[in-house]
Specification:
CATH superfamily of the largest domain: Glycogen Phosphorylase B
Distance between the termini: 15 Å
Order of helices and strands: EHHEHHEHEHEHEEHEEHEHHEHEHHHH
Strand order of the largest sheet: 2-1-3-4-5-6
CATH architecture of the largest domain: 3-Layer(aba) Sandwich
Number of strands: 12
Mean pLDDT: 91
Number of domains: 2
Shape: globular
Low-confidence stretches: none
Strand content: 15-25%
Structural class: alpha/beta
Number of helices: 16
């Protein structure tokens, strides 16, 4: 008898890092185990492209209306599946009645997966027009209705355990055999301070821009490289912007000497799963991070990276590494081994597959 899993996600397949590294890269492994899988996204391809662009309120409202209808149409075919895997949310607005029906009336085994503190209000500026429709308490409800809950870190898991004892930590992982498969070569002509992310996390860079401004005046071989989906508006002579591209992502990261991940000390940041740091480390790039949440577990100070507690700490650490690039090179092996041992697909695949037992 065939075994079937329905993956319910916010975004189209292979478009969002959260989905790619939380579950999409495990789909081939599930299929090797005899599972048949299907993925349905809330936002279609056209809606996804326009979602975070400013304006276009009426077209976004139309896409939203169509997507909600399609979510409830799922109920008519839900009996085909043995497991329903919901990543982050069933719908961005409204009460998740369909999830309640799947769990309580149709007795379906729901796996709920999340990698941010999504019970805390957090809305992008481009989509505040429908923020009043969001129901943040839905996270708690779906956790209660789920068969198992997969959490990106212990902070998130502690929240989930209040409502469901079958909650476990499944860290965000990287495929060190394919997409992040090699150690970068240390740049020679430039010392490259790198950051990768999206428009929604670029705000965390603002606090250390003054540090970059100061360092670029001291060192003419300094480069501040940003890989993102939008071009940053920073007045820096050392800034190099690289548009994010899935096909060149690893090669673009390989240009970094060190990678940075500044965060604020707040509950939302506590829920972050350290993905930027893991990307850097997987390629032998030391990670400089704020000591917030899971970052303190991923980064071992002066072994595979540095914990930077305040602005003087960021400045002094970066200056030291610019002056001593041999220290950066010496840390490469430890960086990559951290990911291979604890945050790779190979290391975590048994835990992920066990969700469907």
């Amino acid at each position: 008898m065939p075994k079937r899993i329905l993956f319910i996600s916010p975004y189209p397949h292979d478009t969002a890092p959260s989905q790619r590294f939380r579950f999409e890269q495990y789909i081939p492994l599930l299929e090797l185990e005899g599972w048949t899988t299907e993925q349905v996204s809330f936002w279609g391809a056209k809606a996804w492209k326009s979602l975070y662009r400013p304006g276009k309120v009426f077209s976004k409202a139309y896409y939203l209306f169509i997507a909600i209808i399609q979510r409830y149409i799922l109920l008519f075919k839900i009996n085909r599946y043995d497991f329903i895997f919901i990543h982050r949310e069933f719908s961005p607005i409204g009460f998740p009645l369909a999830v309640f029906m799947m769990s309580r009336w149709m007795k379906k085994k729901i796996i709920f997966d999340f990698d941010d503190a999504i019970w805390i209000p957090n809305v992008s500026d481009s989509n505040r027009w429908f923020s009043f429709l969001k129901v943040y308490d839905n996270t708690r409800r779906i956790i209660r209705w789920s068969y198992r809950v997969s959490c990106g870190n212990q902070y998130l898991c502690n929240y989930a355990l209040q409502y469901n004892s079958n909650s476990v930590v499944i860290p965000t992982t990287l495929d060190t055999d394919k997409t992040h498969a090699y150690i970068r070569e240390m740049p020679v002509e430039k010392f490259v301070i790198g950051w990768t992310g999206t428009h929604s996390t670029m705000c965390y860079l603002e606090e250390i821009i003054p540090v970059i401004e100061k360092l670029e005046k001291e060192f003419n071989h300094l480069e501040f490289r940003i890989i993102a989906d939008i071009k940053p508006d920073y007045q820096l002579t050392s800034l190099v912007y690289v548009p994010w591209n899935k096909t060149t992502e690893a090669d673009d990261l390989a240009k970094f000497s060190v990678g940075i991940m500044p965060l604020r000390h707040d509950p939302w940041s506590e829920g972050k799963c350290g993905f930027k740091a893991l990307q850097y480390l997987s390629m032998g790039i030391p990670a400089l991070v704020s000591p917030v949440g899971v970052n303190t577990s991923i980064v071992q100070h002066e072994i595979n990276g540095f914990l930077c507690y305040d602005l003087p700490d960021w400045e002094n650490t970066l200056r030291y590494l610019i002056l001593h690039p041999e220290k950066v090179e010496a840390m490469a092996k430890s960086c990559r081994q951290t990911v291979i041992d604890r945050y790779s697909v190979h290391a975590i695949k048994k835990d992920f597959l066990s969700l469907f037992q």
